[in-house]
Amino acid sequence: MIEKTTDSVNFIQKIIDEDNESGKWDNRVHTRFPPEPNGYLHIGHAKSICLNFGIADKNDGKCNLRFDDTNPTREENEYVESIIEDVNWLGFDWEDRLFYASDYFDQLFEFAMQLIKSGKAYVCDLTGEEIRTTRGNLKAPGTESPFRNRFIEENIELFNQMKSGNFENGEKVLRAKIDMAHPNLNMRDPVMYRILHASHHRTGDEWCIYPMYDWAHGLEDSLEKITHSICTLEFEDHRPLYDWYLDQLDVFHPQQIEFARLNLNFTIMSKRKLKKLVDENHVDGWDDPRMPTISGLKRRGYSPESILNFAEDVGVTKRDSIIDVVRLENALREDLNKRAPRVLGVLNPLKVVITNYPENHTEMMEAVNNPEDPSTGKREIPFSKELYIEQNDFMEDPPRKFFRLGPGREVRLRYAYYITCTDTIKNDKGEVVELRCTYDPETRGGSSPDGRKVKGTIHWVSANHAVDAHVRLYDRLFLKENPDDGDNFLQYINPNSCTLLENVKLEPSLAIPENITYQFERNGYFVKDEKDSSENQLIFNRAVSLRDSWAKFLKQSGH
Ligand code: ATP
Ligand code: MG
């Protein structure tokens, strides 16, 4: 991977360097990636994963994987499994440090009791709505809860009863006793525990009170002896509370550091909204190749390396910005250009009969696997009398600048011969359905001994040897650059985001494709869809075209 030293990488690295210099953490660097298992991971999470595991790697440190499973109503084991798989697939290793917030529920309860005993937390009977309305706003202080001055003994008793299940959902909460006039709204007696009679995917029905994120997160970090707790900017306003909780207890106190989250144009990046796309069947599951999820990108044909390179390329900053999704696509192109084996595949076939080529004859043509990487060698592909070429490589009445095939015109067949179109066969609608061509036997391998030049080179597949496949071509899932800024992102879904081609002809080496992304020459990068392909039906997904066609489109449409 190319090491890029942007200022942005330096901002967190700088803090670490300073800490190492002052000996703040005894030269330890310990980070964590703390997903909530309420959906599949997306490309934004990938950035956080690369950052947390990357920082640990670069500094000889450690990074934990920790599930922040404090909300049983939204969390599921399916999500836990997918997250483990995705972080693994990206190539990161948490060794034996896989943790769950739910492992700390007992400990967190004890800590809460300590706060109650020191008069810094109380049980409050106000409803959620009342708590909201009494919090005040940026201009006005909040009003204190009538339950704020309960005796410590009463609070202990009530909190125990909350835990025992004596109350209904919402009947009571535990709140920190901080300051209802604090300029930071998060400090106005925030809720620490709420009652939720719900089954948890790991602790079952053991608990009916669950800790709030702010209360739990810092203590989880503390218990794991995290040094640098890296999170996204929206938690900046929560940092005083993070610090306050840790200061009330005699515990290890990590440092929270915020960075700007990754935003991509033409993309939705909220698990809640991605879930809506899945639940309402706008896409074919979380791993639909159009989804910005890690599993979707994987199914689309992205490599882990391209995602890591992308994360490195966009860097880490303190300022929110929107990254052009083309940069993600280009990271993939760059990676695959170096690595993807090149093969010939015809997406929209047009039959060609070489009239002067012998019947029932096959010869093997030598083809280069990847000119960018000579070590990948060569392979042979069969050539015969009947071929398929791409429909749009022929025009009956071509303009002067069209360098492909037309009546009387000559082109080079990649790795094979020069051919000249002599005749066209049409159906009763007048559409060309077959071409008759002659080949020049002297041009084997693609050059002419008489020095005769042709301007165009087109790809082809031998008809009798072709492997049949379906191909799915993808376009952006959203038509709007910022689908998230209106009230309903669903209205911007691109109705033509997937096109199925059902008559695709591939060279025979693809009969049993490997689990890698190929370049179909001139057509882009393709990967076999492992989920939908069957023994009788091979399906390929296009990961990305060879070039960015949207740049042109956006320019034309005045963007
Ligand atoms: P979402 O809002 O998409 O549902 P989240 O922040 O609720 O995401 P978590 O599971 O809580 O999702 O996130 C785990 C970690 O990933 C957190 O540290 C969070 O800050 C980080 N993260 C989430 N989204 C992004 C993003 N777009 N860019 C960078 N980091 C992100
Ligand atoms: Mg979250």
Short description:
The chain is α/β, with parallel strands linked by helices.
* Total of domains: 2
The CATH class label of the largest domain is Alpha Beta
Radius of gyration over alpha carbons?
31 Å
The CATH homologous superfamily name of the largest domain equals HUPs
| CATH-derived topology of the largest domain | Rossmann fold
Annotation, overall tally of beta strands: 27
- Order of the strands making up the biggest sheet: 12-25-26-27-23-24-13
What's the shape? elongated
Multimerization status: single chain
Q: Sheet with the most strands?
A: 7 strands, mixed
Give the percentage of residues in beta strands.
15-25%
Q: In words, what does this structure look like?
A:
- The chain has 559 residues and is of the alpha/beta class.
- It has 13 helices and 27 strands.
- It has helices at 7-22, 43-58, 77-89, 105-117, 128-133, 152-164, 213-223, 239-248, 271-279, 294-300, 304-314, 325-339, 549-556, and strands at 30-33, 62-67, 98-100, 121-124, 173-176, 191-195, 209-211, 228-232, 255-259, 263-264, 322-323, 342-343, 345-346, 349-354, 363-368, 378-383, 386-390, 410-413, 418-426, 432-439, 457-458, 460-462, 467-474, 498-506, 517-520, 524-528, 539-544.
- The strands form seven sheets. The protein has a seven-stranded mixed β-sheet with strand order 12-25-26-27-23-24-13. The protein has a seven-stranded mixed β-sheet with strand order 21-18-19-20-14-17-22, with no helix packed on it.
- Helix 11 crosses helix 12 (325-339).
- The radius of gyration is 31 Å and the shape is elongated.
- Bound molecules: adenosine-5'-triphosphate and magnesium ion (MG).
- Adenosine-5'-triphosphate is lined by residues 34-36, 44-45, 47-48, 231-232, 261-262, 269-271.
